[in-house]
From TrEMBL:
<feature type="transmembrane region" description="Helical">
    <location>
        <begin position="561"/>
        <end position="581"/>
    </location>
</feature>
<keyword id="KW-1133">Transmembrane helix</keyword>
<feature type="transmembrane region" description="Helical">
    <location>
        <begin position="294"/>
        <end position="320"/>
    </location>
</feature>
<keyword id="KW-0472">Membrane</keyword>
<keyword id="KW-0675">Receptor</keyword>
<feature type="signal peptide">
    <location>
        <begin position="1"/>
        <end position="16"/>
    </location>
</feature>
<dbReference type="InterPro" id="IPR052192">
    <property type="entry name" value="Insect_Ionotropic_Sensory_Rcpt"/>
</dbReference>
<keyword id="KW-0325">Glycoprotein</keyword>
<feature type="transmembrane region" description="Helical">
    <location>
        <begin position="361"/>
        <end position="380"/>
    </location>
</feature>
<protein>
    <recommendedName>
        <fullName>Ionotropic receptor</fullName>
    </recommendedName>
</protein>
<dbReference type="GO" id="GO:0005886">
    <property type="term" value="C:plasma membrane"/>
</dbReference>
<keyword id="KW-0732">Signal</keyword>
<keyword id="KW-0812">Transmembrane</keyword>
<keyword id="KW-1003">Cell membrane</keyword>
């Protein structure tokens, strides 16, 4: 009784598995090929079949597989099709695939290929021909596949070059050939722009090692795929645009460098974007205003006019409400109204004993205005004495010409800014530009943090300068976030067009980014640069001049003005006495 449920369960299990086993149809001539495609689909799913060649056994299979099929009977397509990475390529013969469009060839490079081979052709020569075209994912079946059930799969970089697999074996037909490159070289060139790529020589063995966040990424990749990294380094004479040129001419596999992607560029010779950054200006922090000019700048013209108007209005009101008549109204009484002057300057003034309601209200207004004014100027003056304002701040690209801020930039950068019609660059007065021919000279000037110039810098590089400035007594440069030539600039690594392990590299790159390795390396950039002797660990800010406290000579011009005014008053006074004396003499004579 106990055994029965187990038996039922067992039967149920077998029945559950039955639909997975395709029903064998012995009479069908394509049965084995169909089994093979099912096996391939289990290894890695495919969603499209691309069939090269006119008519062969593959053509009738698609209906049974229920997968869309693209038939290219001529062997070549002119149009740039967007084939998916999940396309399986079937070819009716070794010479049938004659793709003319190179974009399609690049797109289909890593896809799996199954080739139907006539009896008389040797499989290893097919492998060789495909490897010359840098297509490495190839397997073949012969015409007698129905009988032998043998699949020939090409292997590269390892021995033997060709393996035979039986249809019923479980090990995979296609493998990732470049997972282990068996110490094959990766040809590269390093631009040695700190901090992204730097070279460090190990003292013990004299061996050179690549550092920096791009350098590390590529060294790790070579290690991961068991390849050797063969790299040259750029010198000053060769522009780093040369890396991009040599990569696009297929001379190099990888450039250990970063290249900005502009809108029109395709990703043929560049990796998937590696960094996202802003490209802006870094400008010297402008000097503080000398302390003796603080008195002058707190007096704003508009505020002066308002105070003057307030003064005149208060004077007129005072004159009227004292006698309730306009009799005393004249210019001298308005402008030299001692009550209003003393009131506004916060001084004591006589308050009439029997003041009316109106007069008291006006006195209240006067007192309030005086409190406002004196406290405002007090606060203004004292805060500016403690922390003087900067001389001028550059807020727009036009200000660069206005304040004669020199900007240094390398020549190739200027050419590229002009050819891309950069609107921000067009606003800069060209007389303020210092154009430097050698790009390394430019980098050296920028690294010396010479305060005579502003520089073009990516936000990424700026973070290292910001780290460096933490050692300084005070920061000498700032990153002008409002003055950017391009925002959201994608940077990617130059890669050869037909690089067969491009997908492995990009996956590696994204994994390192995702895990946080890249940001970790970046955060260590400055200390790596110090360790390798690229950046000195010293304060590059100009020595601080000893700022004496406010001296009498700082406000001497105010005293001079006061003195001149006193002289004029004395002169007027003397003149009045003399004039009055003469009148009395004339009256006496009469
Ligand atoms: C391989 O290429 C050579 C030269 O292009 C050609 O002669 C030969 O027939 C090709 N072999 C196969 C198997 O396609
Ligand atoms: C790397 O390649 C070398 C040379 O072919 C080989 O001896 C070694 O076993 C490989 N290393 C790994 C981890 O596969
Ligand atoms: C730049 O502007 C010129 C003339 O205004 C135009 O002919 C050219 O196509 C523009 N270039 C780009 C890259 O937009
Ligand atoms: C900065 O550059 C100017 C002009 O090129 C030069 O005269 C000056 O000596 C440099 N200053 C420093 C600190 O190198």
């Amino acid at each position: 009784m106990v055994g029965l449920p187990f038996l039922l369960l067992y039967l149920g299990e077998i029945r559950g598995q039955l639909p997975d086993i395709p029903t064998q149809r012995e009479d069908d001539p394509q049965e084995e090929l169909y089994q093979l495609l099912l096996k391939l689909r289990q290894e890695e799913i495919f969603d499209t079949l691309l069939v090269y060649g006119k008519e062969c056994a593959f053509h009738s299979l698609s209906r049974r597989l229920e997968v869309p099929m693209v038939m290219v009977s001529s062997g070549s397509t002119e149009f740039d099709w967007g084939y998916s990475t999940l396309t399986l390529i079937l070819s009716c013969g070794p010479e049938e695939e004659k793709e003319a469009n190179y974009r399609n060839r690049v797109k289909l490079q890593k896809n799996r290929r199954l080739i139907y081979l006539p009896e008389d052709i040797q499989p290893d020569s097919v492998c060789n021909n495909y490897s010359l075209k840098e297509q490495y994912n190839v397997a073949m079946v012969r015409e007698d596949f129905k009988k032998t059930r043998v699949i020939y799969a090409c292997r590269f970089l390892s021995h033997p070059n060709l393996v035979e697999k039986h249809l019923m074996t479980s090990d995979p037909i296609f493998i990732e050939n470049f997972q282990n490159m068996h110490q094959k070289p990766i040809k590269a060139i390093a631009d040695l722009v700190a901090p992204r790529s730097m070279v460090c020589v190990i003292a013990k063995s004299g061996e050179k090692q690549l550092k920096g966040y791009v350098g590390n990424l590529i060294t790790n990749f070579a290690q991961k795929v068991n390849a050797t990294l063969q790299y040259e380094t750029l010198n000053n004479k060769v522009s780093f645009l040369d890396i991009i040129r040599r990569v696009s001419e297929d001379e190099l596999d990888i450039g250990i460098s970063l290249e900005a992607l502009n809108v029109n560029k395709d990703l043929d010779t560049a990796s998937y974007p590696f960094l996202l950054t802003n490209y802006c200006l870094m400008l010297p922090v402008s000097a503080k205003l000398p302390i003796n000019r603080v008195y002058a700048i707190i007096v704003h013209h508009l505020v002066l006019v308002i105070i003057l108007v307030l003064f005149i209005v208060l004077s007129i009101l005072l004159i009227y409400s004292q006698k309730r008549s306009w009799k005393n109204l004249n210019v001298a009484n308005i402008l030299l109204n001692d009550v209003a002057i003393r009131g506004l300057l916060g001084q004591a003034f006589p308050f009439p004993a029997n003041a009316g309601k109106h007069l008291r209200i006006i006195f209240c207004i006067l007192c309030f205005a005086s409190i406002m004014m004196t406290t405002m100027y007090n606060a203004y003056l004292q805060s500016y004495f403690t922390n003087p304002p900067t001389e001028h701040e550059i807020r727009t690209f036009k200000d660069i010409g206005k304040y004669h801020q020199k900007i240094a930039l390398p020549k190739f950068e200027m050419t590229s800014l002009i050819t891309t019609n950069n609107s921000q660059f067009a606003e800069i007065n060209k007389r303020e530009l210092l154009i430097i021919d050698g790009w390394k000279d430019y980098l050296n000037l920028r690294d010396s943090l010479n305060l005579s110039y502003g520089y073009l810098v990516t936000e990424d590089r700026w973070s290292v300068y910001a780290e460096q400035q933490k050692l300084f007594k005070k920061p000498i440069f700032y990153f002008a976030k409002d003055l950017c030539f391009s925002r959201q600039l994608f940077m990617s690594i130059p890669l050869r067009r037909h690089l067969p392990y491009r997908h492995l590299f990009e996956e590696h790159m994204m994994r390192q980014q995702e895990f946080g390795m890249v940001s970790y390396w970046k955060s260590h950039s400055f200390f790596d640069m110090v360790r390798l002797g690229i950046t000195p660990i010293k304060d590059l800010s100009p020595p601080k001049v000893f700022e004496a406290s406010l001296l009498l000579q700082d406000i001497s011009w105010i005293l001079k003005l006061y003195f001149a005014a006193m002289m004029i008053s004395i002169f007027c006074f003397l003149f009045e006495i003399l004039y009055a004396g003469q009148r009395r003499v004339i009256n006496d004579v009469r």
